[in-house]
Amino acid sequence: MARPECESPAVSGPPDSPETDVGRGPRPEGNAEVADEPAADAVLVRRAVLGDRSAFTTIFHRHGPAMFRYALNMLEGNTQDAEDALQATWTKVWVNIETFHGRSALRTWLFTVTANEVLNQRRRRRPVPVDDTLLIPRPEKAHLAPAAQLDQRQLQEALSAALTELPWRQRASWILREMEGQSYEDIAQILDTTPTVIRGQLHRARTTLATRMETWR
Amino acid sequence: MTTHEPTQEPRRADAASGSPANTQTLIDLASRALTEHADQRWVEVAPRVLSTALRATRRSLPVRAHAPGGTVHVSEQVIVAYLHDALDGHTPGTAVAGIHVNIAGQDTFTGVLIELIVQYGTAILPAADRIRAQAATVLLELLGPAATAINVQTSHIHVSDITTQDPQEAPPTTQPGPSVVNRPTDSAARE
Predict the structure, then answer these.
(1) Same domain for B31 and B124?
(2) Contact A150 B50 (CB under 8 A)
(3) RNA polymerase sigma-70 region domain location, by residue (chain A) (predicted)?
(4) Which end of chain B is less crowded, N or C, counting CB atoms within 10 A of the terminal residue's CB?
(5) Angle between the A106-125 and A53-74 helix axes, to the nearest 10 degrees?
(6) What is the pLDDT of residues A74-87, one digit of tens each?
(7) Which of A4, A95, A159 sits opposite B30 (nearest CB)?
(8) CB–CB of B37 and A147 under 8 A?
């Protein structure tokens, strides 16, 4: 039986509202936020479970950028879709953070939730491609001058387009490994597979991307 | 957050040589450009995402409270958040590891269990007494006479861990807390 949602008519809400908690003042002695060393993820989780919104905000700012990069690159650079996926992710994290028991790194758990929400977002948007085989048409040479080809934005768009043509699991593996520096074991946990499979996916992704990017040399 | 080196312009002579190493250089540069692009977008969307997430309501049991105008209900999560805010870090050498509100039938508050992490060398009993008094004050404020009708003895203080470091820096204990008394019989099914 699901526990009922309950709003308190007697009080306006938890001690710190979303609008005010970010700038909440320091606590007395012994508080992790006061120390120079940033609080460990496990400490922040313990406090967030107990409703500490400033701890949750710290987690959000610590891991949110990497999760957004993953979502944005998995959703073909569509900012709105990535925002929707991250919104669903962080809402679930806030509501269910007590279900994180520390059996993996917090970042790995967060990426797992993000990967699921990105998949849900893709399903809502269009049918999921199920064929993992890759047909690699060589793109025509760009019509820009060589100097322009090496422009940062051109490179970014070239890699983004090449990533888009990778199968989902290869793309996810490459982003998590090459852009976010996750270990094979963590990627396997995030994508619910084995490190051996991840190694194979990464090898194929690297080969395909190298082929794609040859046209930009 | 993964740190990335500043974007560097590729050496065109190298890039034109066509070696695999240069292809990897291009991919690395493009990857950094993608990262910077995403981070710029994130700055725009992060405030919206955070504020919306924090407005989501966690699952919670209602607790009956007595207000001047009559009986009202307070969310269990509200009680936990207020207690944590009032207790955590306010007693030297202690940190709150968990708070469990005990609720009997008809949403009746019967007590609260507060788990503590205590730094080695801290006098546990005085610290527990201080926290118990602080908790009673918070509960009186939130629940009114519904809290004072409950003997403070039912507000348990449980020391779940002892650490030699700052207890605020201690991660959560992996051992589950003691069973909570006076829970509704179907509480397990609600999880």
Answers:
(1) no
(2) no
(3) 60-126
(4) C
(5) 50
(6) 998 899 999 999 99
(7) A159
(8) no
Is residue A186 very low, low, confident or very high in pLDDT (cuts 50, 70, 90)? very high
Q: Do B62 and A15 touch (CB under 8 A)?
A: no
Within a domain: B16:
yes
Q: Regarding predicted confidence, which is higher, A9 or A81?
A: A81
What's the mean per-residue pLDDT of chain B?
A: 74
The total number of structural domains in chain A stands at 2
- Does B126 map to a domain? yes
> How many other CB atoms are found less than 10 A from the CB of residue B40?
9
- Segments of chain B assigned E as strands: 62-67, 70-75, 94-104, 108-119, 156-163
Q: Which residue has the higher pLDDT, A57 or B184?
A: A57
User: CB A95 to CB B56 under 8 A?
Assistant: yes
In this structure, the answer to whether residues A111 and A186 fall within a common structural domain is: no
Tens of pLDDT, residues A54-72 = 999 999 999 999 999 999 9
| B45 chain-A contacts, CB cut-off 8 A | 68, 79, 82-83, 86
Distance from CA of A194 to the nearest CA of B (A): 24
Q: How far apart (Å, rounded) are the C-alpha atoms in residues B127 and B120? A: 13
Has residue A60 been placed in a domain? yes
In sequence order, what are the residues at sequence separation of 6 or more whose Cβ sits closer than 8 angstroms to the Cβ of residue A77? A160, A164
CATH code, domain carrying B140: 3.30.70.1350
Residue B177: CB partners within 8 Å, gap ≥ 6?
B97, B98, B100, B113, B115, B158, B160
Complex ipTM, two decimals?
0.72
Query: A–B: how many Cβ contacts below 8 A?
Result: 234
Residue range(s) defining the domain that contains residue B119: 62-179
Which residue range forms the structural domain that includes residue A166? Answer: 131-217
Look at residue A102 and tell me whether its pLDDT is greater than 80.
yes
Q: How many domains does chain B have?
A: 2
Residue-level pLDDT at B10: 43
Residue type at A158? A
Chain A nearest-CA residue for B45: A83
Residues of A whose CB is below 8 A from B141: none
Kindly tell me if the per-residue pLDDT of B186 is higher than 70: no
Are B72 and B152 part of one and the same domain?
yes
At residue B6 the predicted structure's pLDDT band, cuts being 50, 70 and 90, is: very low
Contacts of B54 in chain A (CB under 8 A): 18, 21, 53, 56-57, 94
Choosing from A128, A148, A181, the residue where a domain stops is A128
